[in-house]
Each structure stands twice: as C-alpha cells, then as structure tokens.
Amino acid sequence: MSEFSYTIRDEAGMHARPAGILVKAMQQFKSDVTLTKGDRSVSLKKLFALMGLAVKHGETVLIKAEGEDAEAAVAAAKEVLEREGL
Q1: Quick one: which of 20, 32, 38, 83 is 20 to 30 A from 73 by CA?
Q2: For residue range 33-66, what is the model confidence (pLDDT) as tens digits?
C-alpha cells in the first residue's frame, strides 16, 4: 500500500478536464487506487464517482493505492495532479 495527501490548489477545484486525465492515467494500473475526501472514498478509475465528490479549492484529499503496482500508481497520480496544476 502506498498513499499521499494532496491539497487542491486550482481555484476551480477538481474539474472535468484534469479529472479525466487523472482517471485515464490510473486505468493503466492493476492496483486499486482511491481518492478519499472526508469520510467518502471513490475509485480513481471512475470519472463520475470522482466528480461526485465535488472536491473544492483548498480541500485536502488522500490518494491511496493497494496492489502490485501501488507505488507506481501513486507516483503517477501525484505527477498528474502537479502537472495539471490541481
């Protein structure tokens, strides 16, 4: 298992374009990858579930991966979040 916390910096919060890029990136991994906001967790491989969390600017989320390529999945998620300016 691998995980990290991330605070959303984009004024628009987690919006569709970068969320779609993140989901597409996570779909290449075998591990289960989740994003947790408060007491709700969703798969980072499902765009509508992610958008349903309505993550806003300044909120901190936890990204966690469990499985054989968990470390690579978490590293890729962090890279996408930073590259997309989230």
Answers
A1: 38
A2: 999 999 999 999 999 999 999 999 999 999 999 9
Mean pLDDT confidence for 10-31: 96
Could you tell me the residue ranges of all domains in the chain?
2-83
Q: Which CATH superfamily is domain 2-83 in?
A: HPr-like (3.30.1340.10)
69 with 1: CB under 8 angstroms? no
Q: Pick the catalytic residue from 4, 6, 13, 15.
A: 15
| 57 catalytic per annotation | no
CA distances from 72 to 3, 33, 69 (A): 11, 11, 5
